Amino acid sequence: MISKKVDKAVNEQIKKEEYSSRLYLSMASWCQKNGYQGAAAFLYKHSDEERMHQLKFVHHLNDRSGYSVIQQIEQPPSQFESLHKLFQEVLKHEQYITASINELYHVSTTEKDYTTANFLQWFITEQLEEENLVNGILDKMALAGNEKSGLFLIDKELGGLVAPAGGGNSAT
């Protein structure tokens, strides 16, 4: 049985993961409309990953005799100043999610819910990988500056990070 405090904290994380999925979907749409097909494909993929994270939390909570309640969330932004600023926002958001996962881990251990704490280990590692990935993208953008040829190559590389999916619609 999961404590009410952990149940509430996991439900908040479910909401944040859903928002992450919608944020990256909005960003992907902006990229696609602005000619950044590789970045769009990259962000569409990340939107799907965030949705899967949300489902992992839903299943964990329900499997532990908690109850996941799907909540209303705010609309994510739909306009971005530039590809560079967009990825700065991605990094800021990933750092926010990392802090949230760390707080959830703290709540779990404080409540002596070691099953949830163990479950969160995967997310802790995942967040480290996500922040490193986005930092690497921002480093490459800084090297490219505002040159269109540099952004073109970065966009192409972002598209290459997405494994081809069989049969689905593609942003590229």
Summarize the structure.
The protein has 172 residues and is mainly α. It is built from 5 helices and no strands.
Describe the structure.
This protein is mainly α and 172 residues long. The protein has one domain (4-160): Ferritin, CATH 1.20.1260.10. It is built from 5 helices and no strands. It has helices at residues 4-33, 37-63, 83-110, 114-144, 148-160. Helix 4 packs antiparallel against helix 5.
Defining key terms:
Ferritin, 75% helix, single chain, 172 residues, 5 helices, mainly alpha
Q: How large, in whole angstroms, is the Cα Rg? A: 17 Å
CATH domain class name? Mainly Alpha
Q: How much is the average pLDDT?
A: 92
Give the SSE string: HHHHH
CATH fold-type name: Ferritin
Structural category is mainly alpha
Strand content: under 5%
Number of helices: 5
Blueprint of the fold:
Elements (H helix, E strand, L loop, with lengths): L3 H30 L3 H27 L19 H28 L3 H31 L3 H13 L12
Helix pairs in contact: 1-2, 1-3, 2-5, 3-4, 4-5
